[in-house]
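User: Please fill in residues for this 125-position structure.
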């Protein structure tokens, strides 16, 4: 499920007080700038999954930033400690300090929430 951040069109309209193409261009520039910040703030390769678009909302133009990475909800909300078990094999295989290790299960410590989209929205103002 993609996560998205919406830029409030009412605040943009009041701040800009522009008409026609200039309004679209200003909303587009601000949305693009905020999306670039989100790409930089995103962990790992998640920034490559960020896209943006301008839509006509109920109160005017809106900039929409979307991240459709499959794990984005886990990054934004964080995870609790949990056990990871193999699904299709007898053991999990991974590397630790250059050595291949096998395990029947792993106790994952969980992750803290990293709401990079909200942080990008605050920084893009």
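Assistant: Residues filled in for all 125 positions:
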């Amino acid at each position: 499920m993609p996560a998205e951040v919406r830029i409030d069109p009412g605040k943009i309209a009041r701040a800009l007080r522009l008409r026609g193409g200039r309004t679209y261009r200003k909303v587009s520039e601000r949305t693009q700038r905020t999306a670039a910040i989100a790409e930089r703030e995103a962990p790992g390769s998640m920034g490559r999954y960020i896209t943006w678009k301008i839509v006509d909302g109920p109160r005017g133009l809106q900039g929409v930033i979307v991240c459709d990475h499959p794990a984005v909800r886990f990054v934004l909300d964080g995870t609790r400690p949990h056990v990871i078990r193999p699904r299709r094999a007898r053991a999990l295989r991974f590397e630790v300090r250059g050595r291949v290790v096998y395990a029947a299960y792993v106790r994952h410590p969980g992750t803290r929430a990293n709401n990079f989209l909200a942080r990008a929205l605050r920084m893009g103002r």
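For context: The chain has one domain: 3-123.
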